[in-house]
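Annotators were shown the component list below and the corresponding predicted structure, then asked to write short factual statements about the assembly.
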Amino acid sequence: MKRRLAAFIDRLQDIGTLDDLQKLIAGLRSSYGTEHLVYHSVSSLGEQYAVLTYDARWVAQYVDNDYARIDPVVQGSLRRFHPVDWKQLDWTARRERDFLGEALEFGVGNQGYSVPIRGPNGQFAMFSVNDRASDRDWALFTEKYCADLILVGHYLNQKALEIERGSDVGPRHDLSPREIDVLSLLALGLNRAHAAESLAISEHTFRAYIETARQKLGAGNTLQAVARAVAAGYIRP
Amino acid sequence: MLRFLDSDALDREPDLRDSMFRDRACQFRDRLGWEVSVDATGHERDAYDDCAPLYVIWQGRDGRHAGSMRFLPTLGRTMLNDHFANLNGGRPLRHPRIWECTRFCIARDAGPETAALVMLGGAELGRGFGLSHAAGVFDARMVRIYHRLGWEPAVLGRAGCGAGAISLGLWAFGAPVADRLATRACLPPGQARRWFETAFGADRAPAHSPAPAPAPAPARALGRAV
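Structure shown to annotators:
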């Protein structure tokens, strides 16, 4: 699971176009073994775009009918920030039920799980996983991969914004893998001796890695370095 | 019981909502003397209550609020980044798997285990959504409470000293913490998890919605294989 996520993040680094992103998301779908994956972004001006694996005819239908206005996944994600199972959304009204019926006809699965994503300046996106699993299997899947999905959605959104803007977002500190290891273990609450031991390096070397990481991050002390590494996304689950 | 409610869900339970905002006024304005704003109805609310937060609430047998806290994602607007960035070297703390926790409140007449129950709710939330940490700002009086509950934060920054010191902390989520808090709160293992699943789970229809039409029928239909 961690390897799959790490491989995805690595591949994401080299991507420069939405076409590449489309290929990446298709590959990701295969690796998770689900029916569909959908990244759907809505700007503050209401412009949308998506990278997804749905049937192109369904996408055209959705756009032509402006279904984002009634789609409970979109409307529900706008009102929440936490991940949500589609069964928790409100499908009671006739309009929503008809919409769902139509989606199912185009091969959209009956199970869904969406992570709302908030970007800068009112930008908003969702990352959804869709499948036909049984209720039980679906509950197991979402429990197992929820943490992954939050991160994948976040990184997809950053990449999509970067492609849109044509520039990189945020400063890079370029920590080395060893520096990241050291900070990750400290973030887990290990003391220096134990952490150094688990990396099979001396405590002296361990301290040297902390020091270089601290300087790169412009942090005043070790705890601050850990916090900044977490905030900058270096420390992964 | 433990309730996990976003703003919309909270608005469907006015008694629970109103008792929480009144208890917050009682704790933060009356007992702690903080400069918080309390409206004409006696509710302590701030701008972050309008940011669609998620509330973790321990609801007493009478249906009223007994204890609570409020969560917001650190990728959105947070009190921490708006007002306490100095505790993090002047930089915002932003991460998809770190949520901010604020307004930890216990009703005046709540039972002695309430603090543990609310903290357990927070721990269960993090475990359920696969989060890594909760971030929060706390003052010196809370240090002993976190210690007693057995869930202490890693301190990232501190300002001031003595009783007036305030700190920024990160609480690591994980199964051991949730289990420890459940023991402390005298709850059977797995109970808090079931409450979480009631709120967010995939194999249950939305529960505890006294509002009209919780509509289990289409929710079920959605889940069944077609």
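Statements collected:
1. Chain A touches chain B through 53 residues (CB under 8 Å).
2. The beta strands of chain A are 36-42, 48-52, 84-85, 111-118, 124-131.
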